[in-house]
Design brief:
6 strands
Length: 271
């Protein structure tokens, strides 16, 4: 069996701005939600059987307490933000397992789900559907891979090494050194991607760096590593069979009416 884990927050953003491009700025109230639902139904139509979607029920997480400049919901367009919770409810009505995260982030849910699913010997492969470089740390050989829908690439461990220059396990260290503007932490001044990869391949994790390498910046680097390290202990499910899609619930018809997209109901009932 192949388990598909989807970054619902990213997909919502992707659909929202993709549709805006074609609608010339006229946002449909639930257009992005419909887009995400159709994309997941397409996955199921082409063979996906076990699916889980992680979402940011709120943008803020425990990381905001560790670093004041960590990303928040500030600046997200109201028309997009208003579709966060409807997406979760519509997915549930469609029969898809959803993990709305509050203290943790959607990325933590994906990492936790990958950890649980990959521990089941029945699972042949775990596909994490997101381009977020944080999730590269979860890649394991050819068994846990990262799928970038936009870039049309599937990244295994060799792909992570090719892209970042380090093993997947060192991605939190790599991001700590180079920073992550999307998440709001700057990294260590004077260290770019090439230098970061060289240091990590030479010395290993930041904790094992000689004291002279980072000097007074060591504690700052370790803090950023904590921000970049995804949690894998969220108790999301016990058995991968809980992720099997068994069709829409009775509530989905009302949701398709609300979304103004009857094709969703027709499509879901054909499978």
């Amino acid at each position: 069996m192949i388990v598909h884990l989807i970054d619902g927050t990213y997909e919502l953003f992707r659909q929202f701005y993709g549709r805006r491009h074609f609608s010339k700025g006229k946002d449909e109230p639930f257009g992005a939600v419909s887009g995400v639902l159709h994309s997941i139904l397409e996955m199921i139509e082409t063979g996906a059987t076990h699916v889980g979607v992680a979402t940011d029920h709120v943008i803020e997480s425990f990381r905001n307490d560790l670093w004041p400049d960590y990303k928040t919901g500030e600046g997200i367009e109201p028309a997009l933000l208003a579709q966060f919770h409807p997406l979760e409810e519509a997915l549930t009505a469609m029969g898809v397992v959803v993990w709305p995260m509050i203290e943790l982030e959607a990325d933590d849910a994906l990492a936790s789900a990958a950890q649980i699913a990959s521990g089941d010997e029945r699972v042949e492969k775990v596909c994490i559907w997101t381009p977020d470089k944080d999730l590269a740390q979860c890649v394991r050989g050819d068994r846990v891979v990262q799928v970038d829908r936009k870039g049309k690439t599937i990244r295994n461990a060799a792909g992570v090494r090719e892209k970042f220059g380090v093993e997947p396990e060192l991605i939190p260290d790599f991001l700590a050194l180079v920073g992550d503007t999307a998440d709001g932490y700057p990294g260590i001044a004077g260290i770019g991607a090439v230098t970061a990869a060289r240091l990590l391949n030479q010395y290993g994790a930041i904790e094992t760096f000689p004291p002279t390498v980072l000097g007074e910046q060591r504690d700052r680097a370790l803090l950023f590593k904590t921000l970049a390290t995804l949690r894998t202990d969220a108790p999301l499910f016990h058995d991968v069979d809980e992720l099997r899609w068994r069709g829409p619930t009775d509530a989905f018809a009302a949701w398709t009416d609300r979304l103004g997209d009857p094709r969703l109901l027709e499509r879901s009932r054909k499978m």
